[in-house]
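Our consortium's second objective concerns turning raw sequence data into structural hypotheses that experimental partners can test. To show how far this objective has progressed, the report includes one record in full. It was chosen at random from the queue rather than selected for favorable results. The single chain below, 442 residues long, was entered without modification.
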Amino acid sequence: MMRLSKILIICFSLVVIRLDSVAQQQLSLSDAVKFGLENNFQLEIADYNIQIATINNTWGEAGAFPTLDLTLNQNNNINDQSNNPTSFIQDKLTTNAISEAIALNWTLFNGFKVKTTKERLDLLVKQSEGNAALVVENSLQSIVLAYYNCLLQKEKLSVLEILVRNSRKKYNYALSKSDLGVNSSFDALQFKNSYLSDTTNYLMQQLAYTNAKRNLLLVMGIDSLIDFELTGKIEPPVAVYDYKELKTKMLKNNQTLINQFLNIELMNSNIDLAESALYPVVSFASGIQNNKSHFKAENIGLEGQGGSLNYYANFTVSYRVFQGGKVKRALQIAKLQEKIQEVTQEEMEFKLNNQLQGYLDLYDTRLSILKLANETYNSAATFLELADERYRTGVLKNSFDLRDIEISFLNSAIVRLEASYNLYVAYIDLLRVTGGIIDVAK
């Protein structure tokens, strides 16, 4: 037992020295958010998707411009009619021909399909941006909660450190009194056990703090275990929120709803694309073709060459009268798919309204709990101060009672810290559902 107690005392002393001596890098919440967004793999992928959608978002991709083709054909032919009595020329004929052509094809009208396709490409860019915004919100929530969890574990560690130091002082004080014969060794042994127990709790909390920092580094995308000192504090906003105002913000700014509105617009563009097949197609084709040929009959000594130049400019109007009902079915399916997205939006709004009510009730409840926790902590701190004073003056002689008061203070301090953190989590949930989580890192 003596060996274990010495080990714990030495460990605590080394821990305090290490924490005081190591130069740590300052890390604010804005810094954590900056690192987290810079190193986020999913956000990098979302950015590439935006670039792809932007590259595709052109009138050329929508089919508004003509196509221009340049072709060059070289044909060689040998026709041996030497043994054909029915042939007018009984000889081996060799023909070489070169054809050069340039052709322009332009669809002038195809039922507003070009316009609809371009609008759809615009929507796809917005959809990619919306998906990226959703990734940012998810990342922000993870980073902020991880950062404030670090603060929570740090504050718990500070409370335990104070308790350990006080326990050590009481143990040394009781030990000195015991040596002088003023107090019994029983109280000294009791304070020693309290000190060892508090030191053990401190070391376990230090591990929890280290793990919390390691998790923060993970969500920040930093793989090296660097040491840092948090500069923030757990200060949840104390406010009274109105449900109607929050609901208005949610319906306007919630990124999930915004993305769903884009999905509905995309489904509506599918309807327009399906309807474009009901219109005739007007196209224009123009080009130049230059043909050159050379022929030779070996036995009769006949040889010559020729050529032709052809210009053309044609307009074509085509209308597909019947296709087995394919166009009608495509139009019906597109309308049903739009209905599905509309129902999905209604379901989404219903669930979000329910979430908002739950988050608001949770925030109000946790706000009340925090107020009670603050009052309990203040009372426990005052009670502990009075108990320490009475023990020093000899009014309070039972060390067990003093220990119970210390434990009560410790529990009230931990409950107060957790209440602050839980209220902040509820606040983040309100920000997230109403589309305002971006503001938390500013």
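The partners drew two points from this record. Strands lie at 25-27, 67-80, 92-109, 228-230, 281-297, 302-318. Residues 1-23 have pLDDT under 50 and may be disordered. Both points have been shared with the crystallography group to help prioritize constructs.
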